[in-house]
Amino acid sequence: MDANYIAYEALVVSREAADWAVWSALGTWFSGIITLVTAFVAFRALQTWKQQERHNEKKALKAALINYRNLLVMMPETLEPSEPDCRQPALLLQDSMNQIYLHVTLMEVTFDTSEIGRQFHALYNRHAEYMQGQAHREQIAELLIPFISEPFISGAYKSKPE
Questions:
Q1: Residue ranges per structural domain of the chain
Q2: What is the pLDDT of residues 105-161, one digit of tens each?
Q3: Pairwise CA distance, residues 15 & 112, whole Å
Q4: Is 26 a residue whose pLDDT tops 90?
Q5: Long-range contacts: 46-55, Cβ < 8 Å, 24+?
Q6: Would you list the DSSP string of 21-37?
Q7: Distance (Å, rounded) from C-alpha 1 to C-alpha 118?
Q8: What sign does the CA torsion over 96, 150, 118, 77 have?
Q9: Torsion sign across C-alpha atoms 107, 116, 124, 130
Q10: Cβ neighbours for 44, distance < 8 A, ≥ 6 positions apart
Q11: Other Cβ atoms within 10 Å of 153 Cβ, number
């Protein structure tokens, strides 16, 4: 074989290798860009999921408050802890308060700095007084109705301080 022919073939192979290297580099850049776009979309989806989860927590709290109100309507004006007929309704009302407490705790509400926390704390204390026979049903309703009426699901006020 001729040396010029061998050099020519080496040149052709080198040119094809360079073409493949260019395409490989472009593919790597394209893959990197797609990875960044995917990471951005995943981050946005995670943020949306967090917002939906907070929204669901607030809806669950609102539902627990309404359930408590529905039970409270059926309770006697004042609870007599020693009376046997009050035992079952009192347990149901306490279970409903425990559900409210559960949702407030899951929301990680601070009791001293957030509006939801302050309202829950006042309601919880009044509930304890009622369960001991020291408060009237209307006194609980005075705290409960404004709590239910607050538009905290739509974000009118924050459950956590900024």
A1: 3-149
A2: 888 877 778 888 899 999 999 999 999 999 999 999 999 999 998 887 776 555 554
A3: 73
A4: yes
A5: 54/107, 54/159, 55/153
A6: HHHHHHHHHHHHHHHHH
A7: 94
A8: negative
A9: negative
A10: none
A11: 14
Amino acid in position 39:
A
CA of residue 104 relative to chain centroid, distance: 11
Cα–Cα separations (whole angstroms), residue 4 to 10, 13, 84, 157: 10, 14, 111, 83
Place of tokens 């059926």: 74
Q: What is the pTM of this model?
A: 0.70
Based on the number of CB atoms within 10 Å of its own CB, is 101 exposed (0-12), middle (13-18) or buried (19 or more)? middle
3-state secondary structure of 65: helix
Report whether pLDDT(43) > 80.
yes
